[in-house]
């Protein structure tokens, strides 16, 4: 693979450079490009500079190809509709390759399939890649995207180069990452994460496209080769499969780098919460599984008027303990790739303001007045306006249709800088200091609104034991309660047992200011209609208030078998519109928790097996004991 670096201008008989200066590329980047031009054989090369002119060119190409259309109701907003077979992350086709299987996943017991990642041997991986990438870009343009995850120049940031044959991916990466010529200047001849992406549909086409959206679902593969610092994604143009800076780099490769270098890459939002009366401000990081409320919490409008929330990030946190022992977090992204359904002026007015300009919507419905629609906007659509569903049903009506207007995993892709409540320090190269970590998920039964861990180790156990109802963010169809430790199940880059040891190690070091750890559940159901017991969204400020006060060591917690919960009357419910059933929200049914403990035993035993740290099984035994003696 190590061909000599070229010293002359690009000399590919089949490929022309149509945008950018190939010779100005740093040597290592040029080498990487040359290697993959030889492999993929694009017609033309476009080196992205991140300019306005370039973006106009991209939108022109995307419109001409019928991939996006303008939404005249807003300013520079676009609607993309994918092939209905390419609408979410494909977890079963996402692989990590390493020499030793056990570096990637724990060895499951009894020959079970690992639920903690898919491993492939380097030889098999080479075969799979060779079945896909040769000539895959024929007739197309290869775009070269230099991008930084994290503010350029931050000691916590990392640079990647993505090669892609999708202009949609370029336009999205331009929003989600810091991209452009300045990245190459900062990179010089350093190493970078190599990100190769193809939709897998060379020209001329051999079969028709759906919605003009090139993809190849039957051959889709999202491959990670950490030993080569490389990601190769084929066949899908969708979000987490194709915007390689996001889940592939910032979480899977990121978690490996974090393990090696002593930091953490997590599926977490980061928010600032300021008490306006005292002026005291804290930062909180929170891990919820995909489509379980990170964006909404990160941008929430608190119903408690003495709090102000600011947003640092909505999906990914890179965190490192600094030399004073404080845990500091940056958001490696520059945009939000947020779930559209459920977003409204009532639930998330800040997101609604953010997406009014320069936004790419994917798989939402459109309105006859040139706007967008999705489930949750019923009360915000103007009279007489007609809806066209994401699948193209004209004059779609809820009462008459058996399918939703927008795909359940339809998304907006929008620049973070447009969010009116971005934290003043959101691009601080040092990151923001984290005071609390929250875990959470969709738990219809048994799990209370909020509880606090006894200490760091118990908190790590709570993260390890997380479970949540599956959502439309990946291919799982039936609504089932899945184990999703740390909200990272689809995103671990290395053995989950080693990941747990890494987290535990911070509890065993001296001189660290360990954040308190909490668990929340906005999704408990009950009552006559089995509806949500908690109003959620802006009302979640009441839970954040309790958490912040616990960080100030207020005496408002009482001990239970599973952790500390709010003492009677300590959760501020003043001014709540509808009364809530606190007993139902906080009850700890013994049978439920016995079953929960058994499910966690089984999961740890089968899935983590010999790699489970003894501290974690110890915490589980203690929990079991407390439940029995309570
Ligand atoms: P990813 O981007 O997939 O990682 O998801 P996310 O964790 O950012 O999820 P998001 O905030 O986009 O929420 C997903 C869905 O949950 C949306 O439909 C929201 O409307 C809904 N949701 C978010 N917060 C709450 C809440 O407090 N209560 C209820 N009932 N629903 C919520
Ligand atoms: C998620 O699924 O957790 C997302 C969306 O944030 S995607 O980028 O598609 O992975
Ligand atoms: Mn996510």
From TrEMBL:
Spans through the membrane: none
Signal sequence extent: none
InterPro entries: PEP_carboxykin_GTP_CS (IPR018091), PEP_carboxykinase_C (IPR013035), PEP_carboxykinase_GTP (IPR008209), PEP_carboxykinase_GTP_C (IPR035077), PEP_carboxykinase_GTP_N (IPR035078), PEP_carboxykinase_N (IPR008210)
Superkingdom as given in the UniProt entry: Eukaryota
Domain Phosphoenolpyruvate carboxykinase GTP-utilising N-terminal: 32-258
GO cellular component terms, semicolon-separated: cytosol
Keyword Metal-binding found: yes
Keyword Ubl conjugation applies: no
Enzyme Commission code(s) on record: 4.1.1.32
Record's keyword terms, sorted: Decarboxylase, GTP-binding, Lyase, Manganese, Metal-binding, Nucleotide-binding
Cofactor(s) essential for the protein: Mn(2+)
Pfam families attached to this UniProt entry: PEPCK_GTP, PEPCK_N
Any GO BP: oxaloacetate metabolic process
GO molecular function, one term: phosphoenolpyruvate carboxykinase (GTP) activity
Domain Phosphoenolpyruvate carboxykinase C-terminal P-loop, chain residue ranges per copy: 263-626
Root EC class: lyase
HAMAP family assigned: PEPCK_GTP
Assembly information from the UniProt record: Monomer.
Family: Belongs to the phosphoenolpyruvate carboxykinase [GTP] family.
Protein name (Swiss-Prot/TrEMBL): phosphoenolpyruvate carboxykinase (GTP)
Native organism taxonomy: Eukaryota, Metazoa, Spiralia, Lophotrochozoa, Mollusca
